[in-house]
Amino acid sequence: MNTSSVVFVWPGDLHLEFPDRPNYQTAQWMADEVNTLIKPDFVQFAGDNVQHAKDPEWVLFKNVYSKLQPPFHALVGDHDAHHDAGAHAYQAQLGATYQAYTVGGYRFICLNTMQFRPLGMTDEQVIWFRYEVDAALARGERVVVFQHHYPFQVWEDFGNMPGMAAWRDIVQTRPITALFAGHTHYGQIANDGRHVYVAVRSIGDPEGGPAGYAVVHLDGEDLALTYRSVADRGPVALITHPRRLVLATTAAHIVTGPMDARVRAWSLGPINSAQGRIGDGPWTDLRATGELTWAFPIPGDSLPKGEHTLEVRLVDASGAEGTDKITFLCDRSGRYNPFPICEPVVRETKFC
């Protein structure tokens, strides 16, 4: 599968209702940072773009997406179909409720999981979904799925809703690179031993920390992401290789010998210091490989079998830091059997 590096921004549910509320201000901040700092290939909204699907709320959403310089796409969430089962207001504002597009050799498939209440998909959309996945794989594209509802949402009956058994058959029997969802208000990454699922924290009524957005990096077998909150300042740092253990689904995603870790950053100014370390080892300078990209040696031939941490810190000219830290797996035999795992564990929520 031939792909090129793709970066996209995945904001949490906006729940826009009134212009004087913090979520609207955060959404405006997100749009500004996307334009000036991240400059991604596109922005994908997770659904629940508005609170009650009223005309003034759609104006607020338009104010946000109209600021964006990169392309954007949006999903249908349950609040976007509030008292509007056919999502007619959404369609009048944004067009089709499900679609697909290709960027850099990746086929991004946007589903509408609100065709039934409280959630579900029609047979027609399921057939379309199956065709889109199979056609993309036949073309040599990698598949990423976007949908509003998270399959592991606390206190929600996902699996028994219309169309979800067929959805699960498609997802579980095809090599899906990742599935991204909203709806939860909290953020979580789940690995079921075959696929990776990412739920991002909401911008409207966030749980588990401050509101913000995810920055996602895709490049062949590499999948990496970080979360930028409204409270963060300075550069954004991201370890793009190797994969975090929670994101590892094949033996190709673990360390089996000597290799270079890869790091990239987004910064408004120059980076004066770039360092990394494994475990509690000494901080060592990263090796620059390009503009805002670095490498760091991982001695995979001498590390003990098991889990290890890799940490990087970048300091800009003002002294502000950007950091990232991952847990990766090392096994010189190359054996890896993926196992179900999620980070963080969430057992309750105020929503849904």
Structure write-up:
The chain is of the alpha+beta class. The chain has five helices and 20 strands. It has a seven-stranded mixed beta sheet, covered by helices on one side. A five-stranded mixed beta sheet has the order 3-2-1-10-11, covered by helices on one side. Helix 1 (22-38) runs parallel beside helix 2 (55-65). The longest helix has 17 residues, at 22-38. It is globular. The two termini are 38 Å apart.
Please give a handful of descriptors for the protein shown.
alpha+beta; 33% strand; single chain; 5 helices; 7-stranded mixed sheet; 352 residues; 5-stranded mixed sheet; globular; 20 strands
Compact description:
This protein is α+β, with helices and mostly antiparallel strands and 352 residues long. The protein has helices spanning 22-38, 55-65, 88-94, 123-138, 164-173, and strands spanning 6-11, 42-45, 72-74, 99-103, 106-110, 142-147, 176-181, 188-191, 196-199, 212-219, 222-229, 236-241, 259-266, 271-278, 284-285, 287-290, 293-298, 306-316, 321-330, 341-343. The longest helix is centred in the N-terminal third of the chain and has 17 residues, at 22-38.
